[in-house]
Amino acid sequence: MKTSWYQEPWAWLVFILPFTAVVAGITTFIIANTNPDTLVVGDYYKKGKAINLELGKIKQAEKLGMRFGLKLVGDQLTVRPTGIEKEFPLLNVNFYHPTLEEKDFYLALTADGNGNFTHHFEADQDVSGKWQVTISPFENHWKIQAEITLPQSEFITLAPDPSTAN
Known about the structure:
This protein has 2 helices and 8 strands.
């Protein structure tokens, strides 16, 4: 007695494998077209030039002999120039958290009578932990970058290091 093809289990096995491949292909095509990958950098040439400019700023800081000491005791941050006689009207100090972008912050510090740059943090602002710190002058013609851990009861030295450029 002869049975119909659709009653044979082997026939369904032969048909189901290509059918699942077609369904998976269509699904992949739909996912790829509805969620396209974003470009990491849209204008890579311009970004590359900016990186070279940043390296130039770090090299300029090294050439000028820029060095700073930084400490955080309690809620008071102190940044002081060390080994340089130049006075700065304003320092831009950026703090970048390694994992949480919403914790990043910027300080524009002016010197006190002793030549130190100080800032008092709010009681609820937690700045302990690891940070990428960038110091630059108002004119932004040089830059120092360093990775630090806060709090620091003693002054730590921040000096230009070309290997820290982004």
